[in-house]
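Hey team,

Sharing the Glucosamine-6-phosphate isomerase run so nobody has to redo it. Sequence (274 residues) first:
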Amino acid sequence: MKHEYYQYNAEEILSKGPKFPLIIMKDNAEVFKSMADEMADTIVEHNAKGEKTVFICPVGPVGQYPYFVDRVNSEKISLKNVWFINMDEYLDDNKEWVSIDHPLSFRGFMKRTVYDKINPELVMPEVQRIFPDPKNPGHIPEVIGQLGGVDICFGGIGINGHVAFNEADGSLSNEEFLAQQTRVLKITPETRTANAIGDFNGALEDMPHYCITIGINEISHARKIRLGCFRNWHRAVVRRAVYGEQTSEFPVSLLQNHSDINLKITEFVASLTD
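Structure output:
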């Protein structure tokens, strides 16, 4: 085996000197609930001090949102001083947002699953629900600057190590890759295939070819980064992330030096046996 870290068992993955802090949790539900609780707890803390809260939010993972919505509604947590900046969105062949009613639309998902489920008296104004726009990609770094930075970036890790849709690109140096901001790009065949299997019942031919993504630059400058990993292929992805070298060919590895990042993984991902 060329890379022995792919064979590290649950004990070794913690003991061999991982380059990211790893938190092993029982199952998917525990990972999702932990992410939701950190979201809600941060908002409550900031509200008490009269401070705004700014998150970068994914649509994948998504299991945290029902827990988050339940806490917001049951505890009457105001989101009026909260900004959700979503990571990305699929684009059509004209490089415009897919329609909000497209089954893969992240805008549609957030509306149906998050914003429409929260008590209208608690939910943030629409202007504070931000998506990267292919017609104005510079808006994301601008608004982050105006808000004073991002408190926490939540997300996952893709099949080729991408965070958001920051696809691997070995033609760039690590420094060049980290400098990339919000932009339109073509989705790699690997990512289209993995997402078709995970999100679209395998309908690869109907998967979008383009997306707009928040940049790795914006992600890397968030004050905290929290990544959840729970899929079967995350077993290899996590091992490369925490033991591989920093390289633009596996973008998450470029976050190894971040001052406050952790990976929340399930016991299944930590183990190499079912």
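The domain at 4-13+20-265 is CATH 3.40.50.1360 (Rossmann fold).

Ping me if you want the raw files.
A.
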